[in-house]
Specification:
The chain is mainly beta. The protein contains three helices and 30 strands. A six-stranded mixed β-sheet has the order 10-9-12-17-14-15, with no helix packed on it. Strands 11-19-18-13-16 form a five-stranded mixed β-sheet, with no helix packed on it. A five-stranded mixed β-sheet has the order 22-30-29-24-27. It is globular, with a radius of gyration of 22 Å. The structure holds CU-O-CU linkage (C2O) and copper (II) ion. Copper (II) ion binds next to loops. The site of copper (II) ion has 5 residues, from loops.
């Protein structure tokens, strides 16, 4: 875990910038809550003090297909468009190898940890059994350097997912890979499929993610102009906090979206100077499976000269919705269908609110023509950009109508100066787990009490937004609230956290426990 930043209850600066606490600040609340919860059981909230031992081996049930895979996590040197970086990756590849199965299959994935550190794998978005969820101290022991661990689980729901460690800020190294669960009953009305993995890259460029986190804590956030993108401090003034959903288009919704200044942004492990080239024939229908594996970057995605039809969000079907561009937060996935024109087109993922490091780009080629430049700027990037949480659910993806049996509050809190982030009054390990009883419909009233945007992620379940839209990761703009409903149908101890990995590691996590 991160070094404990001292909890301070007062703000010293009279200047209330976006970087400071605005309302319900974590510092102030933390003092009271920490004092009030000295009776909480140490380790209960997930500090690695519980031990689990080796997982009990499982077998597929009769008739269940077995999908086996071995992954090696190890240090590697990678060439990023002529620049060599040393990093950690699965099988030495960026992104790591695809894990693919059909819904209902039994997955057995062995991880060989050849890293000089403990690690785990979390199967992001998969509604799997708790013991395979990959959270050290909560669902398993950390996998120590030089040892192996076998993950066995059934993946029940088709969709686009990914996997990554749940240790420290390892996600911001090269340790991530796509995971696709196919629907054996889906016709698949498209000619080709492209997996598009987005990332922000800093590892091995003279620093590491661990050093980045240390510096954020030591400096109390980025140097001015860093991840802030030079946005105007007064920009909150005109915002209607109660109805972000109805905000006028053209207003950047996320205000302040990241803390880290990255030198590169990647699509499928490649920088714009050596882009991935995706080829097909003119007129073909392609399914894009876009995954944001970045640690600190929200992207705006557009394919030059094309409209996209968004079909799925976080693995769940939506009412097909046409867009020229869409936002994707860290940990989110969107599937889209596009009918390709004839020629060469830039697929661009532009980092929201970041002014250095350029953008991520891949080349879509169906005909002749020269490749787009690294600064290619599809017009749709500056048009109306779709906000994923405003999508409507497909009928098939809706939870059955039901009133909540229980309601809990979840406050996202924190500040850049000092760099401390938490939930419900304290950082993870000091906050009280949320609880639910098996079988309940739980409503979580989530409120972002900070001046940054956070992608809120839930393990082991998906939740429904008030519209019925099903997701496991949702972007929450500054001061935005969502009532999110989940069915407690997967017993165990689960995490809820911000998917900005630096925020999560600084403490912006909480456990969700099933009460017995
Ligand atoms: Cu991808 Cu706990 O997260
Ligand atoms: Cu966050």
């Amino acid at each position: 875990m991160a070094t404990d930043p001292t909890v301070k209850g007062t703000m010293t600066s009279p200047l209330l910038s976006r970087r400071n606490i605005l309302l319900g600040g974590f510092g102030i609340a933390a003092t009271a809550t920490v004092a009030a919860c000295t009776t909480s059981v140490p380790g209960k909230a997930g500090m690695p003090s519980r031990t689990f031992g080796a997982p009990a081996p499982l077998s597929p049930s009769p008739g269940q297909r077995l999908v086996e895979k071995t992954l090696v996590a190890k240090p590697v040197s990678l060439d990023l468009g002529g620049r060599t970086v040393s990093t950690w990756a699965y099988d030495g590849k960026l992104p790591g190898p695809l894990v693919r199965a059909s819904s209902g299959d039994f997955l057995r994935v062995s991880l060989d940890n050849q890293l000089p550190a403990d690690t785990t794998i979390h199967w992001h978005g998969i509604r799997l059994r708790n013991a395979a969820d990959g959270v050290p101290g909560l669902t398993q022991d950390p996998i120590s350097s030089g040892t192996k661990y076998v993950y066995e689980f059934t993946a029940p729901d088709p969709g686009t997912y990914f996997f990554h460690p749940h240790v420290g800020v390892q996600l911001d190294r090269g340790l991530y890979a796509p995971m696709i669960i196919d629907d054996p009953n889906e016709a698949g009305d498209y000619d080709a499929e492209w997996i598009v993995v987005l990332d922000d890259w800093i590892d091995g460029t003279g620093t590491t993610p661990d050093d980045v986190l240390k510096k954020l804590i030591a400096d109390g956030g980025p140097a001015s102009g860093g991840g802030m993108g030079g946005m105007d401090h007064g920009s909150m003034g005109g915002m209607d906090h109660g109805s972000m959903g109805g905000m006028s288009m053209g207003t950047p919704p996320w205000v302040d979206a990241g803390d880290v200044t990255y030198p590169f942004f990647l699509i499928n492990g490649k920088p714009p100077t050596d882009p991935d080239v995706l080829t097909a024939k003119p007129g073909q229908r392609v399914r894009l499976r876009v995954i944001n594996a970045a640690s600190d970057t929200i992207f705006t995605v557009a394919l030059g000269g094309h409209r996209l039809t968004i079909t799925d969000s976080d693995g769940h079907a939506v009412e097909p919705t046409e867009a020229g561009a869409f936002y994707i937060g860290m940990g989110e996935r969107y599937d889209a269908i596009v009918t390709l024109g004839d020629g060469v087109f830039p697929l661009v993922a532009r980092p929201f609110g970041k002014t250095s490091g350029g953008q991520a780009i891949a080349v879509v080629r169906t005909g002749s023509g020269s490749a787009p430049g690294v600064d290619a700027a599809p017009a749709d990037l500056s048009g109306q950009v779709l906000i994923g949480s405003q999508l409507r659910p497909a009928e098939s993806a809706k939870l059955p109508d039901r009133a909540p049996d229980a309601t809990v509050d979840l406050a996202l809190q924190g500040s850049m100066k000092p760099y401390q982030w938490g939930m419900n009054g304290a950082k993870f390990g000091e906050n009280e787990p949320l609880t639910v009883k098996a079988g309940q419909r739980l409503r979580i009233n989530a409120t972002n009490q900070t001046m940054m945007t956070h992608p809120l992620h839930l393990h082991g379940h998906t939740f429904a937004l008030p519209s019925g839209l099903r997701k496991d990761t949702v972007l929450m703009a500054p001061m935005q609230s969502f009532a999110i409903d989940l069915d407690a149908d997967n017993a165990g101890d689960w995490m809820i956290h911000c998917h900005n990995i630096y925020h999560a590691e600084a403490g912006m996590m909480i456990a969700l426990e099933y009460a017995t």
